[in-house]
Write a structure and sequence with these properties.
The complex is a heterodimer of chains A (336) and B (295). With 336 residues, chain A is of the alpha/beta class. Chain A is built from twelve helices and 14 strands. In chain B, helix 6 packs antiparallel against helix 9. Classes of the chains: A alpha/beta (336), B mainly alpha (295). At the A-B interface, strand 5, helix 2 and helix 3 of A face helix 1 and helix 4 of B.
């Protein structure tokens, strides 16, 4: 196993003759971390998850999970993984508990074990109170959490979460982040895909950026941000103060400069709001009045702009023609 | 996890695990019928409505054209036919259930679990068999209330119900293949009725095939639904029900027609043969399409 829990080597998967969903992808990571796969729609994230969870066979290359070749022994791989797909695959007409118990039984737990485990994961995922209601009464966020509970019931060595927060409201998203953080604190290994840089940044110990089926960058959130310059402070001062301000700010960052098109001074903010405070304090000390100041955090768009020279929205539009038809939207009811 | 890591050999699911998986999936599917009672209501109301409509609307007109063993009661002739119609329509649910699971990502979850792959299809067809058994039972009760009486004996009558169940189970596998091939629930809705309608109507379900034009009669008399309906009528009403009966025949002519009628046992075997043949083709086909299905 040589220390890695997931290993992917030169995996290629094509659909039809033209679409290279995975184009020579290699990655590996050790147990106990959250590995984030970041990319726009159609980048190949889901295809990679499907290869690793034995739902799809790669055309070529090698992939292993928990030391087992996914192609040679898919059944053994399945005993080691949990999958929460892009859509909550839970049964509306069963209760939360019945859903989780059923999946537990399919992981070959005895009826008694499945019951015990279901109680445990439902508590862990804060659904114990709603556990005996049918899922039809659940909100979108609760369904996602239940889906996550079901994927945990077999004590997987690796948990695969495919866009766990896409399509749910911001509060549920933050709740789900907390749940995922709890899991990782408890030592679970997670591979998660996301379209959101902040999500990858919040949850993942290591991030791989994927575009057009290729991994285009790998590293920690900080490393990636460093690569694309991180956050940027943009500020406006009166024209007569400009030289003085630039002089003061160069002491903070040598890269501080004037950008003529926006009539603004820009400088990188590697420590985000800390840098911002330092900048404002310094200008205040020099009695330079700040007319306007903003801290710009890099977005997925910036990552793509930096790494590929085109924005994420563009990348997505490019894939539009080759993408598989979108699945039907789920009805999401609010909790009673 | 208990499973040992084996680099070269691949892990297999033991038969006892497969049986447990099939039971789990069957139970899940059946729970849906209980929790969403409207499913069962519609599955039941429709055939009962057919029974009432055909019996009271057509019964008077057709009554004279049916063999005398039916005692002039169209319900006696109609019920065995409608049981097969119900079995054929009910089998369509297999396609709908599968496409729904596909579109909701449930099949993906199942495929990512260390369960027997066959359990999804076996569990689906079994739960539909049980459901169809329930609907058939209800039809029989309704038929008796409307005046149906078998003319043979209880064992033969029960044998007829068993033939209906076997045939229904075989049809479920055709429907499973159709569902997995079209994938989309809305498309499946129309796709399943495409083969069912001509087979049900161009058969002896509602009227004796002798009244059809010769070319249609040739098809109707040899297709599996007619064969199965004949088997049921033979078992429930006797061999006389299979005779080539024309209104106005003398007693002697009727006796000759009965002597020339196919044997009940032959029709039963022929029906079971169809069921086996359908399963030999469609069980492996459905499994293959299931394996290939990438949603």
């Amino acid at each position: 196993m040589d220390g890695s829990i997931v290993r992917v080597e030169n995996v290629v998967k094509t659909f039809g003759e033209t679409v290279r969903a995975l184009d020579d992808v290699s990655l590996e990571f050790e147990p106990g971390i959250v590995y984030g796969l970041l990319g726009p729609n159609g980048a190949g994230k889901t295809t990679l998850i499907r290869v690793l969870t034995t739902l799809l066979k790669a055309d070529s290359g090698y992939a292993e999970v928990a030391g087992i070749d996914v192609r040679k022994d898919p059944v053994a791989v399945r005993t080691h993984i949990g999958l929460a797909g892009q859509f909550a695959a839970v049964d509306d007409y069963l209760t939360g508990r019945e859903n989780v118990e059923m999946v537990g039984r399919l992981y070959n737990l005895s009826a008694a074990e499945a019951k015990l485990r279901a109680d445990e994961v439902l508590r862990r995922i804060h659904l114990d109170e709603a556990a005996d209601r049918t899922v039809r009464t659940y909100s979108g966020g609760m369904r996602r959490r239940l889906d996550l509970a079901a994927s945990l019931v077999g004590r997987p060595s690796v948990l695969f979460l495919d866009e766990p927060t896409t399509g749910i409201d911001p509060q549920s998203r933050i709740d789900l982040w907390d749940v995922i953080r709890d899991l990782t604190a408890a030592g679970n290994t997670v591979l998660l895909t996301t379209q959101y840089l902040d999500e990858a940044d919040q949850l993942a110990d290591r991030i791989a950026v994927i575009d057009r089926g290729k991994l285009i960058a790998q590293g920690t959130g900080d490393e990636l941000k460093a690569k694309m310059g991180g956050s940027v402070i943009e500020l406006h001062v009166a024209d007569e103060d400009r030289a003085k301000a630039l002089d003061a700010l160069r002491a903070v960052s040598s890269e501080a400069g004037f950008e003529a098109s926006h009539k603004s001074i820009r400088l990188p903010a590697p420590d985000g709001s800390q840098t911002l405070l330092a900048v404002v304090r310094r200008l205040d000390e020099r009695s330079i009045a700040v007319e306007d100041v903003a801290l710009h955090k890099p977005t997925l768009d910036d990552v793509f702009l930096t790494l590929t020279g085109r924005g994420a929205a563009e990348a997505e539009a490019e894939r539009e023609s080759t993408k598989k038809p979108a699945r039907r939207g789920r009805r999401e009811r609010s909790a009673v | 996890m208990a499973t040992a890591t084996q680099a070269s050999r691949h892990t297999r699911i033991s038969p006892s695990h497969a049986v447990k998986d099939i039971a789990v999936i069957t139970k899940r599917n059946l729970l849906r019928n209980i929790r969403l009672p409207q499913l069962l209501v519609f599955a039941t109301v429709q055939p009962v409505m057919f029974l009432l409509l055909f019996n009271y609307v057509f019964g008077g007109a057709i009554g004279g054209a049916i063999p005398p063993i039916a005692q002039g009661e169209y319900i006696n002739w109609l019920l065995p036919g409608l049981l097969i119609q119900v079995a054929a329509f009910g089998a369509g649910q297999t396609a709908l259930g599968l496409t729904e699971d596909l579109s909701k990502g449930v099949i993906d979850r199942f495929r990512s679990l260390p369960m027997a792959r066959s359990a999804v299809l076996a569990g689906r067809t079994l739960s539909d068999l049980i459901r169809n058994g329930f609907v058939i039972g209800l039809m029989v009760v309704m038929g008796f209330l409307m005046g149906f009486r078998y003319q043979t004996n209880l064992i033969a009558f029960m044998g007829g119900l068993a033939v209906a169940m076997v045939f229904s189970y075989a049809l479920s596998w055709i429907m499973a293949t159709i569902g997995l091939a079209v994938k989309n629930p809305e498309a499946a809705q129309s796709a399943v009725f495409l083969p069912v309608f001509p087979l049900v109507f161009a058969s002896s379900v509602f009227v004796p095939t002798q009244s059809m034009p010769a070319w249609l009669q040739a098809f109707a008399e040899n297709q599996p639904i007619t064969v199965t309906v004949n088997a049921l009528r033979g078992l429930m009403l006797g061999r006389e029900a299979l005779a080539d009966f024309q209104p106005g025949m003398t007693v002697g002519q009727i006796a000759d027609a009965v002597a020339a009628a196919p044997s009940v046992g032959g029709q039963v075997l022929l029906s079971l043969g169809w069921a086996v043949a359908i399963m030999i083709v469609f069980v492996p086909l459905a499994i293959r399409v299931y394996r290939k299905t990438v949603s």
